[in-house]
Every structure is written in C-alpha cells, then in structure tokens.
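User: Glycosyl transferase. Structure?
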Amino acid sequence: MRVCFFSDNLPPMRCGVGDYVSNLAKNISKDNEIYFATFTKRSNEKNVFVLRKNNYVKELINHVKKSDIDLVHFHIAYSITKNPILNLSYFRSVKILMKLGIKVVVTFHQFPNKDISRGLAYSINKNFSIKLINKVRYFVDYYFGKLYSRGIKYVDYVYVVDPKYIELISGVRNKAKISVLPVPSNIEKAKYTEEEMKIFKEKIGFKSTKDYISFFGMLYQEKGFEDILEIIRKTDYHLLYIGSLKFDNLYRKSLEKLINEYHIKDKIISTDYLTQNEVGMALQLGVASIFPFINGYSSKNGSVNAALTQGVFTITTTLDKNELGYDKRKNICFVEPHDVNSMIDAIQKYREIRITPKRGNLTSWEDVASRHVAIYRELLEEK
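Assistant: Predicted structure:
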C-alpha cells in the first residue's frame, strides 16, 4: 500500500514529531511504499513533497492524486505558539480527501488542553506576565479544542499519544475509532567503548568528582524545570542538561533569573546538540534522570522513555495517588508535582540502581508499527 505521512517538520530539523514520523516510516517501509508531505525544505527522507504554507491544501491534494496514494496519515501537534489556524486547515484537506475516497488517519501528538493551561496559570512560577499569558491561553485552548473535535468527524481513524486527550475530544459521535498509542523512545540503548565515553566526558565538560542529575528535553513551563533548579539549590548535586540551554523567551528568561538568584550557574552543564547515541551516553552519566511535569507524566513523554531505555533510575510526577512510589520493573519513582523533598529522598534511596529494561515493559517501535499497519489494512479493506 502507498501511505503518505504529513508532518510540519522532518529530520534533520529538531522536532519530536518529525523524529516520530521518521522512525515510524522506517519500521513500516519494508512492505509498503512511504511518501512524506512537509513544510521542511531539507529532509533526510525519500519521496518528499515539500509544501508551501500559503497553498499547501491544494498542493497536497495534487501530490496525493499524482502518486496514487491509498491513505494519508496526518501527524498534528497543536501549539498556541504556532499558527493554530494552520493546524485547523488540515481538516479542510481531510474533507477533500474523503470525497476522493482516500482513507485518512490522524495522530494527535499535542491536543488543545485547557486543563494544562489552567494548571500553568496557577503554577509556582511567580512571573505576572507568564501567569496572565496562561490565563488567556486557557480560553484559546478551550476554543480550539472544540474546533479540533468538530474536525475529527471527517477522519477514518484517530490515534492519541495521551489518554487524557480522549476525554478532551468532545462531541464526536464514534469514539470507537479513537485509540491511545504510547510514544516509544527515539533514543536507543547507547553503545560505546570506555575510550569513547572518556572522550565524550571531556567534550561536554563532565566532572567525575561530582554527582549529576540529568534532564533531557525542550524547556516549556509544563516541564516543571523550576523544581530541578530547587534540587540543585538545596543539595550538592549538579545538573547535566542534555540539550541547548537557551533563555530565548519570557518563561526561559525567568529560569535564568532563578539560576542567578540561587547562585547555581557553576553547577550546570549544558551539552548543546548531541547525536542520538550521545544522548543515551549522557543519560547514563547521571545518578538519576528527573522529569517533574506540572500536570504529571503521560505516555506521550518520550524523554522519560529515553531515560528508561538506558536503564538509569528515573523520577517523574503523577496525579494518581495509587501510582506514587517506586516501580522496580522500570526503575522509576513517581512523586507528586512540586514535591521536591520526595524527589531528593528518592535520589538518595535509588540512585545506584541500574537495570536492563525487559521487552514488554516499554513500548517498542515494532509494536507501534504493527498496530499502524493493522489499522491501515483494515481501513483499506472497507473501500
């Protein structure tokens, strides 16, 4: 079958959704012909349709017709910082494709979530401007959530990466066509020699005499990064930030202010951009990886899965009281959001533990690919 994936970005552009689409394509391309539609002018993939944003609906339809595509799979990540109107126009494409008899699948990697907006508006960040923005964001997310839900009725099948999104999708008659599919790790278990690790430590400025906690991912307010800074302030631990630590917006500048107020700048290493294998190596250097999400961990958080894949002790948050505590199968400890003292206690108690994750405890790309192929075939048989 001929499948076309639509994604705003593709590798080498740094984008979690683009990485997801690329990995999915690799795992289903053996017996299927894969095409891509994107706004990214530079891509590592073959069979790529590069679309212009101001005319992309017409261009996408033309490409689909010419290449005799059987099924189009949209990968949508809503963000208030992007153009949500552009996201909504995906559904205009869907209506046209439906009339042409082409099957359509949508994966929501990010859905307008008014509950997160509400949580951010009353978070521990004391910056007045940030709080005001989040209160406005609540109403914007609420409105676009309704519009997105309305557009889903034209889609043949919907995947969501977070079970909370099913609750947010309102007014859809046939919810049986919506299912949850957790995000596998884009980072495989790191492979290296002792000499390669030694060179890598020198490259990032890692000091073996210090104990580091690690964090991997982009900095958004939902990530609760203030809690990590509080841990660094209260303890002798240093921070290994895996990525580029840039203070380039209002929220991130508030973090820079906190770092200066806490006098912890010298206790933070920022690795800048790393290869996927180097990310795995960096995660293995920390005594613990910490992800203190304000609204709790969900199956869409690939950064947590990346840490678990390396077998390192991981701490994250949950809103479910029954989930609190240490899970030895995955080597992960769940605490309540903003419970910094419990995070510190967990590091002290479990920091030496390393495990080899068992197949079945973590979602694999093979599992995700097989589920996609099964749904694609089922939909195409309905024609």
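The radius of gyration is 21 Å. Residues 201 and 208 are 9 Å apart (CA to CA).
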